[in-house]
Amino acid sequence: MTTPESAPLPQINNLPGEAQPARQFRSLKELLDFASGKELAKSMEQMGDSGLAEPLPFPFLALVGQNDMKLALMLGLINPNVGGILLVGPRGTGKTTAVRSLLDLLPQTERSTCYYGCLPEDIETGGIDAVCPECAKKYAEGQPLTASDRVRLVELPLNARLEDVVGGIDERAATLRDERMRIKRGILAQADKNLLYIDEINLLSDEIIDAILDAAAQGIYTVRRGPVSATYRARFVLIGSMNPEEGKLRPQILDRFGLRVVVRGLENPDERLEAYRRVTAYMTNPRALINQYAGEINAANHELQEARAHLRHVRLSDDLASQAIQLIQKMGIDSLRAEITWFEAARAYAAADARELVSAQDLSAVARMALRLRRSAFMAEYFNQQQDEETELENLLNTLAAPPEREK
User: Fold this and answer.
1) Across-strand partners of 389?
2) Domain contains 231
3) Residue 130 has pLDDT above 80, yes or no
4) Which residues contact 359 (CB under 8 A, 6 or more apart)?
5) Which of 41, 345, 360, 408 is the most exposed place for a label (fewest CB within 10 A)?
């Protein structure tokens, strides 16, 4: 993030509809606490209704309150190793809106330019036959197989079939000159190096959840359709949202989410009123509201890019890590993913402030979202019962090993 010594930008009087000058943020907290204070209604009247038909995401910085949710999403953008984000809360609390508003903050990545998603590493691991003939020719000629592109938000709909998720036979391949049968990339493969968002994730079918679990655990997955098979990379940041009153989430997939945020409705009446005003402004003229926050969004994007680049320099001392692990053990948390998520989230938090050493305050700032919903009452009871059995078995074995008493 920008250093405290940075001088603020000069104030510029903008014409109606012009983007405001980019504001510099001194810390991640300042960015999250930012509130515009602009006279939105006045500028809306001057600009009128644009009559836009295309969907435009609600500005991330126009979201009122919900700092924990916004913090978790930003930490996921800075450091994908946090292991995904789960948003749990009732309907109408802005979960889906917040996720979709990330579009303007997403970073750049190298992406395949091929219809089949061929990458140079495919050739390095599987040889020239691992890519399509066109990409094999490009590779031989020294032409790039990838191009820089912005990370995307890939949504998995609830009505998706398993074939849509993992992939199936591609009829288009039969029209190619080589006439080789190929498998069309599914949603999981399309999500590689992207964000994969699943709304109402607790309502997904078991077979699709199993496919997502396998891909998330290994970063790759294999599809077999008769004699044809294909292996795809699926390195994505998984984001899910759910309403707990509609059903629980399977423990297997809950464990795959690093950060868990409990999203409640806004309690402050003033915040609820401000949220209403911004939503009304967005429904009246979405582009005008987006333009009001364009400068701040650009500044936030720049700050996040810097934090991502700085992340590799951030470290956590062994002494502080040992203290944190003792806390996890006192809580009775068995999963090693608890400290992995906690430490990686703290590193991202420190990187956002351009620091190279994680502090206890960094760990405290992200502890709740990293450690909640990790204890299992069932497993605690199971281990207690198992311990009783182990004690009984140990006593019997001690009796067996004891030497027999001699007759007098």
Assistant:
1) none
2) yes
3) no
4) 320, 350
5) 408
* pLDDT over 90 percentage in the chain: 22
* Domain contains 406: no
Nearest partner of 150 among 106, 189, 98, 104, judged by Cα: 106
Show the tokens assigned to 149. 């592109």
Cα–Cα nearest to 208, from 155, 153, 156: 156
35 and 96 belong to one structural domain: yes
pLDDT value at 5 more than 70? no
Residue found by looking up tokens 């997939």 in the block: 253
Q: At what angle do helices 294-310 and 337-352 cross, to 10 degrees?
A: 120
Name the active-site residue from 256, 287, 337, 355. 337
User: What local confidence, expressed as pLDDT, does residue 348 receive?
Assistant: 94
- pLDDT tens-digit profile of 31-51? 655 543 433 334 333 333 333
Half-sphere exposure of 316 (CA within 13 A, CB side): 22
Active site (annotated) includes residue 182? no
Of 310, 345, 370, the residue that ends a domain is 310
Report whether pLDDT(258) > 70.
yes
